[in-house]
Amino acid sequence: AKGKTHKGSADASERNLIMQLRKAQDLDGKSDIRISPKRSMKLSKGKIDALLKKHDSLQKPVDKRKFVVMLTKTLRGMK
Known about the structure:
Elements: H1 17-26, E1 33-36, E2 39-41, H2 45-57, H3 61-77
Antiparallel strand pairs: 1-2
Helix pairs in contact: 1-2
C-alpha cells in the first residue's frame, strides 16, 4: 500500500494504559479506559488507585512492562 495507512491516534499517551489510568484517576474514574481499538471500559477510583500504586511500586522497567501486559490481558477478559 502506498501512502499513509495509519489511521490511529497520533498521540502515544492516549493509547498507553498507564497514562489512561492516571488521567482517569485525576477525573475520579469518570474517564473511559481504552483496552482495545474498539472497546473501552470504566474502572472505579479505588481500583485505579490500587493498580497505579502497584505499578509505581515496581522497580525494574521489565517488571513494569510485564505488569502492563498482564493488566491489559486481564482487562480484555473482563466484561
